[in-house]
Design goal:
single chain; alpha/beta; Rossmann fold; 2 domains; 10-stranded mixed sheet; 7-stranded parallel sheet; 22% strand; binds glutamine
């Protein structure tokens, strides 16, 4: 255990979905703006080992890290706010903890002992938290405990973080509790009782918070703040008001203005430094006063649950900011888009088909790709969105009738998208896809080469390769190498390939585009996972730039 690492523990009370992830991320952003090395851990008290097997419909997006972990979406928010790359260890679940403890027990590591929640499970939790601090070399580790204080399943985690203060000392640990301050319209007042109760419950497990972040509709009135302080034993200048913001990226500023960093500095003995918050100010400014506006149709499956596409929405937002444009996202249910149904799609300045699994709505997505190709509407295909673009091109342009992915039609005469040999042997479900960061060689002279140019890690090994980039993946199927020649002969541009001549995955299609189209770009990876406010994702930035141009051209077009 490094004797300098400091820990900030974030718990939540009253109700779930309070925006603890945003609070944790904002605290991280304020520390990063002061030059600290910061990392963040999300604790999920569920028994799933990871989020990979959970339905996006209920839990929101499955986020993927560089090292191929399938995590809770909060990990993505941390990465975006802290501008750091996190890893598998940053998302701790009950499932992982028990799996490790039981494995150790079977191996005889606890020989002769009775294996119990305290100390064995709590020790496992603590060692995971300490490990992240050590591996990441962070000066400050943020630890967000998922769920709500009072839940049975989060008790071992609360006990572990309680013990940690005992081990690292008061000046190296800080407890921040996020609660809700409901407003009662009938009596026209904020009610502090739920917060009082929630802090009392936290105290019941031995944790007295050092600071409170109170969620409410509008800024907490001074009187309510004093009352909360008095009844929760938290100093009144350590009670912060996180009122509803117009943009998530405005939350760090909101907490900065109220002096939250002062609490961290005081309590953790940090030096007082002036923060560098320019990117945040600039982002919020553009979000509030954009020069342009584009409307993007996202044709997907989980359109009733935008959290299922959280990183995608943020990547579009980042790309919008880079183009000084507001991006309005219109969710189009793929199932509702029938072949030839133009009405659903004509209004958009760009069409995006995101990642997805399963056959539902697939023909609607294929049609969306065709519509964008034929009408020259900017198109961005992500993962499944690239696969449907290939299917559409194969069917309509390359003359491969009934071409499909074997995911949707195992008996298709033209399996242009298929399982690769290594996937045929897989029979388990968790963590078995092509996951994590993989390199891609970008072909010179393509649109993709143009947008990725500032990001190239390595330059082209051959003249037709412009450079190499890395993006994260999460998929099982690939464009079938047996069809690449035929598709290229029909005019499909393969703009990205896995590099190298040997090894796993060599020679797979990573990206495609159309030559005679303003912007028809599709990638097998998920570039939205690495998009940051300060470094928007190139395929997204290019897409929004094209959408802005498309909208302008349409506005000035003379009606015929
Ligand atoms: N279902 C497709 C596959 O497994 C696409 C996955 C995705 O879009 N993430 O390859």
């Amino acid at each position: 255990m490094d004797s300098h690492t400091k820990y900030v523990f974030i718990t939540g009370g009253v109700v779930s979905s309070l925006g603890k992830g945003i609070t944790t991320s904002s605290v991280g952003a304020l520390l990063r703006a002061r030059g600290y090395r910061v990392t963040a851990i999300k604790i999920d008290p569920y028994i799933n080992v990871d989020a990979g097997t959970m339905r996006p419909y209920e839990h929101g997006e499955v986020f993927v890290t560089d090292d191929g972990a399938e995590t809770d979406l909060d990990i993505g928010t941390y990465e975006r706010f802290l501008d750091v790359d996190l890893a598998r260890g940053n998302n701790v679940t009950t499932g992982q903890v028990y799996q490790a403890v039981i494995q150790k027990e079977r191996q005889g590591a606890y020989l002769s002992q009775t294996v119990q929640v305290i100390p064995h499970v709590t020790d496992e939790i603590k060692s995971r938290i300490y490990d992240v601090g050590e591996v990441s070399q962070a000066e400050i580790v943020l630890v967000e405990v998922g769920g709500t204080v009072g839940d049975i399943e989060s008790l071992p985690f609360l006990e572990a973080i309680r013990q940690m203060r005992f081990e690292v000392g008061r000046e190296r640990s800080l407890y921040l509790h996020v609660t809700l301050l409901p407003y009662l319209g009938t009596s026209e007042e904020y009610k502090t009782k739920p917060t009082q109760h929630s802090v009392a419950t936290l105290r019941g497990v031995g944790i007295q918070p050092d600071g409170l972040v109170v969620r409410s509709k509008s800024p907490v009135p001074e009187e309510a703040r004093r009352k909360i302080a008095l009844f929760t034993n938290v100093e009144s200048d350590a009670v912060f008001s996180a009122y509803d913001a117009d943009h998530v990226y405005a939350v760090p500023e909101m907490l900065e203005q109220q002096g939250l960093p002062r609490l961290l500095e005081r309590h953790l003995g940090l030096e007082r430094v002036t923060p560098e918050l320019r990117v945040w100010h600039e982002a919020v400014r553009v979000l509030r006063q954009p020069d342009e506006r584009v409307s993007i149709g996202v044709v997907g499956k989980y359109v009733a649950m935008p959290d299922a596409y959280l990183s995608l929405m943020e990547a579009l937002k980042h790309a919008g900011i880079a183009n000084r444009a507001q991006v309005d996202i219109d969710w189009v249910s793929a199932e509702g888009v029938a072949d030839g149904d133009l009405d659903q799609l004509v209004a958009f300045d760009g069409i995006l088909v995101p990642g997805g699994f399963g056959v539902r709505g697939i023909e609607g997505k294929v049609f969306a790709a065709r519509f964008a190709r034929e009408r020259r509407v900017p198109y961005l295909g992500i993962c499944l969105g690239m696969q449907v673009a290939v299917i559409e091109f194969a069917r309509t342009v390359a003359g491969l009738d009934a071409a499909n992915s074997t995911e949707f039609d195992p008996y298709t005469p033209h399996p242009v998208v298929d399982l690769m040999p290594e996937q045929l042997e897989v029979d388990g479900m968790g963590g078995t896809m092509r996951l994590g960061s993989w390199p891609m060689s970008v072909r010179a002279g393509t649109r993709l080469a143009e947008v990725y140019a500032p990001r190239f890690e390595a330059h082209g090994a051959t003249p037709d390769v412009a450079g190499t980039v890395r993006e994260r993946h999460r998929h099982r199927y690939e464009v079938n190498p047996a069809y690449v020649e035929a598709l290229q002969a029909a005019g499909l541009v393969v703009s990205g390939m896995t590099p190298g001549m040997s090894g796993r995955g060599a020679g797979l299609v990573e990206a495609i585009e159309l030559a005679d189209h303003p912007y028809f770009v599709a990638v097998q990876s998920h570039p939205e996972f690495t998009s940051r406010l300060m470094r928007p994702s190139p395929p997204f930035t290019g897409f929004i730039r094209a959408a802005v141009a498309f909208r302008r051209a349409r506005a000035t077009a003379v009606p015929t």
